[in-house]
Amino acid sequence: MHSEPADISRKVIALRELVSQGLADEVRLILLGASSYNALDDEGSQRYPSAYEARDEKGFHLMTFVIAHLERTVGGRGPSYPDEFERWLSDGAPGINLAQVDALRAHGPSTL
């Protein structure tokens, strides 16, 4: 299942809103597969661009930085990897789909 460009744009705008509204931890849990919203996953949402592999000299995947960014945002320590987070958003936020984002917006944090 591939998303249309308008859906991707709407998903990215919604993710920005969710993070700014204090729901960064739930976004992080979805990316880690630890949210009840993962039941809404489709097989296409977990595909990451090959450029995400070995993102730095230590071989870390770009998603490592995105998840760390969300963790620091939740902890009130401020964002630690804003460039990587923005890259992920500009790539259409792979790893999370529009159904998950819409459900999170409608219902708030999962009950897991």
Description of the molecule:
The protein is mainly α and 112 residues long. The protein has one domain (5-107). The chain has 5 helices and no strands. It has helices spanning 5-20, 24-32, 62-74, 82-90, 98-107. Helix 3 crosses helix 4. The longest helix has 16 residues, at 5-20. The radius of gyration is 13 Å and the shape is globular. It starts with a helix and ends in a 5-residue tail after the last helix.
Layout of strands and helices, then pairs:
Elements: H1 5-20, H2 24-32, H3 62-74, H4 82-90, H5 98-107
Distance separating the two termini: 26 Å
Binned strand content:
under 5%
Task: Provide the structure class.
Answer: mainly alpha
The average pLDDT value, as a whole number, equals 86
- Structural shape: globular
Gyration radius, rounded: 13 Å
Query: What's the number of extended β-strand segments?
Result: 0
Short description:
The chain has 112 residues and is an all-alpha fold.
Record keyword descriptors for this entry.
5 helices; 112 residues; mainly alpha
